[in-house]
Amino acid sequence: MFRYIIFILIFIIAAGSFFVLKKRRDLPFQEIVEFDESIAIINARDWYANKIGISISSDGYHEVAKLHYAENGVCIYKKKQSDKPIKIKLERTDLKGRILYKTKIVYLNSKKQTDQYIVLIGASVGSGWNFDRLTERINISPDIVFGFRPHYFFDKTQIIDKLIALPVPVYSVIIKECSAYFPRDIEKSISLVKEWIIKLQKNNILPVLATVVPVTEQRDQLSPGKMASLIQYNDSIRSLAATRKLPILDLEKALRISDKNRHLRKEYAQKDGTHLTPFGYAALDSMMEKNIKRLFRLKE
Asked: Does the pLDDT of residue 20 top 70, yes or no?
């Protein structure tokens, strides 16, 4: 009887362990950018930076370096002279992290020079889009790396300053606002956007302006003035982009009902009338795939 109980307990533990391992999540927020003759591993949200182990192998097999993030959340590795691939391994070093998250392994071509690092600054819709994993979903050049920086306030100055200060060349920054910030003073808001454009351009970073994702008709009725203010902002952003000859990521156009009815389409909206469904994010992916070369002025 005792042996039978022990056997049952071992079976339960083994089955539970298998289930947990099968449900392990991908390691999030790690962006890998190649530039000059270096590799930057960026912890985009300063997520458990002291509990992530970084190891690099210059020949793809034998470990040659164990690294860690600097205070700015960036780890830089200088490439060695080699024709063999570079293997990067990222893993949580604590017990809880090892149980919950998979080890991330990436192989890089040692001859590759510089990636075009494109970063979206946004809030919940930007986060739900999984923008930093866009290359896994659309047909795009392997020399592009997408990044995401969450920020839940209209004023993006702090995040833009941090991106400018990175020891990694940022190719482009997409400035995206959220419907939660409306209604608001549009004139003051556009003045802020103009300041961000100047900052980015002074540092040779291409600003891309984004229109705000609209809300549904039902959500609009619950918040009088929200949609009218949002439309005014979007029209101002389009005008500013045209005047400054800047690319525009027109999220509103991709998700609205029509040119005349500019509310969010119901099939793209969750029950709150603000956040997007998988269908909405798929529409954004499709828009990006069709327009990415024009948006970011990439060569054919």
From this structure: no
**In order of start, what are the domains of the chain with their CATH numbers?**
30-108 (2.60.40), 116-295 (3.40.50.1110)
Backbone angles phi, psi at 31, to 5 degrees: -110, 130
CA dihedral sign, ordered 198, 35, 287, 158? negative
- Range in 21-25, 181-185, 252-256, 292-296 the model is least confident about: 21-25
The tokens of 229 are what? 């203010």
25 φ/ψ angles, rounded to the nearest 5 degrees: -90, 160
* pTM exceeds 0.85 for this model: yes
What's the token pair of residue 111?
Answer: 């001859």
CB under 8 Å, gap of 24 or more: what pairs does 282-285 form?
Answer: 283/254, 283/255, 284/129, 284/251, 284/254, 284/255, 285/134, 285/137, 285/138
pLDDT in the model for residue 16: 46
**The 63-67 sheet, strands edge to edge:** 63-67, 52-57, 86-92, 104-108
DSSP labels, 209-262: EEPPP---HHHHHHSTTHHHHHHHHHHHHHHHHHHHT--EE-HHHHHBS-SS--
Q: What is the pLDDT of residue 141?
A: 80
Percent of the chain with pLDDT over 70: 88
Q: How crowded is residue 142: how many other Cβ atoms within 10 Å of its Cβ?
A: 9
Both tokens assigned to 116? 């075009």
* 135, 144 contact by CB (below 8 A): yes
Check pLDDT > 70 for residue 17. no
